[in-house]
Amino acid sequence: MGAESVFQQEFMILGGDFNNAGKASSRIKEILKKIGVDSSVIRRVAIASYEAEMNVVVFARRGALKFSVTPKQIDILVEDEGQGIENIDLAMQEGYSTAPAEIREMGFGAGMGLPNIKKNADKFEISSTVGKGTKLEIAINT
Ligand SMILES: Nc1ncnc2c1ncn2[C@@H]1O[C@H](COP(=O)(O)OP(=O)(O)OP(=O)(O)O)[C@@H](O)[C@H]1O
Ligand SMILES: [Mg+2]
After folding, report:
1. Where in the sequence is the domain holding 66, given as residue range(s)?
2. pTM for this model (two decimals)
3. Cα–ligand 1 centroid distance for 89 (angstroms)
4. If 13 and its partner were Cys, which of 39, 63, 77, 137 is the partner (CB 3.0–4.6 Å)?
């Protein structure tokens, strides 16, 4: 992010707010379509931003998603305040989830979000502090 950024926007995400869940990633998709970004790139960004957004809704108290487009890449930074992740290696494993039964009943909690973000991203960095929150830095090349 910085001077070369051609577009930038920040979205607030509220933990437990399932009515608005997914709105930031839908908006991002619209913006990228308007800019004329390649559809395969949009698809990857949409998956990554949606999964990151949902993790804040499901597991954190609140968060911010910063989205920026540069001529070379699309950056997504998601920082939340919440419980944090105790074991990141475990959280990155396909099928690992701590989602409770009521969340699974809503169709979440397959334990595929983080691995899918990583798969779709050209840069993926995650850091977390238990009791404080989690930070995800994602970049997808255009
Ligand atoms: N922002 C976050 N804050 C706290 N814990 C998180 C956060 N994101 C992920 N986790 C932890 O990492 C686990 C794995 O996350 P992941 O997104 O891969 O799966 P999931 O959200 O449980 O299920 P799915 O994404 O398939 O619906 C979660 O179950 C949760 O324990
Ligand atoms: Mg998830």
Report:
1. 7-141
2. 0.96
3. 12
4. 63
